[in-house]
Amino acid sequence: MDRLSLRSNLEKYRTPFEEEKSFVKDFIQLTFDDNAFVRERLEGHFTGSAWIVNKLRTHALLTHHKKLNKWLQLGGHADGNENLLEVALEEAREESGLTSLRIVDPGIFDIDRHVIPQKGGVPEHFHYDVRFLIEAEMNEPLVISEESNDLAWISFDAIQDLVGPNPSILRMLEKTSKSEILL
Q1: Predicted structure pTM score
Q2: Which PROSITE patterns match (predicted)?
Q3: Hey, what CATH class is 3-176 in?
């Protein structure tokens, strides 16, 4: 999925969630910027994430992010790679050590625009995060990366208690829980 495919997929993207609907146009507009896939674009840039679930759709793999001090899905900066599915898979491998990752659907699963706070010389900016649904085996050993404090398979029933009122995570959880065609 290169820049043109991403733009096309975003133009076709439909969601029942008002928050997502509110920023689809901003994502599309960003695809026209030559620097949209590099972190040096300080107003905001694309990132790719993996919402990793087990085959039975009872657990999701979350990481406790060191810099943000929050439980989140795995993912990261595109660093020039316009194929955000590749970015999401690579970040998932790097941040978890998992080798059993399987793409459930190569299409966009979720999008989210969120503020990243200022850190050192990097000003506050937006991440335009494109998420993909990925499946993995829960029995595979996990490897915690230096970007994380912890990494764990969290039961769908416990995710809200862990992440609190994080609409981004809760939206992906709801999408996964309601989708019967993904099994």
Answers
A1: 0.94
A2: NUDIX
A3: alpha beta
